[in-house]
């Protein structure tokens, strides 16, 4: 009886640790303002093979690492960090 209780507790602790480490990982991601950069024509990202992407709402913070935001007139707005 007592040993099964310890097992459950250990399992619970393991779960908390797993969830906790996931949480820390996601907390590591940037917290970005949710505004939409105006006049963005398209975006390219190294992770998508520099394909032209047309995100509905993007800004320089939300853009992934290495992603480039281009204005509608084709000039570079910024590169994601
Ligand atoms: C595009 O627009 C930006 C912002 O108005 C301007 O600074 C830039 O010179 C323009 N680029 C071209 C190629 O027209």
Automatic annotation (TrEMBL):
InterPro entries: Prot_inh_I20, Protease_inhibitor_I20. The keyword Repeat does not apply. Keywords: Disulfide bond, Protease inhibitor, Serine protease inhibitor, Signal. Residues 1-26 form the signal peptide. One of its GO terms (molecular function) is serine-type endopeptidase inhibitor activity. Belongs to the protease inhibitor I20 (potato type II proteinase inhibitor) family. This is Proteinase inhibitor PSI-1.2. It comes from Capsicum baccatum (Peruvian pepper). The lineage of its organism: Eukaryota, Viridiplantae, Streptophyta, Embryophyta, Tracheophyta.
């Amino acid at each position: 009886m007592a040993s099964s209780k310890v097992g459950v507790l250990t399992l619970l602790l393991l779960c908390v640790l797993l969830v906790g480490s996931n949480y820390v990982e996601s907390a590591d991601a940037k917290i970005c303002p949710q505004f939409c950069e105006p006049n963005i024509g398209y975006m390219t990202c190294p992770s998508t093979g520099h394909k032209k992407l047309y995100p509905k709402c993007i800004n320089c913070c939300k853009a992934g690492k290495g992603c480039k935001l281009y204005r509608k007139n084709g000039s570079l707005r910024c590169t994601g960090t």
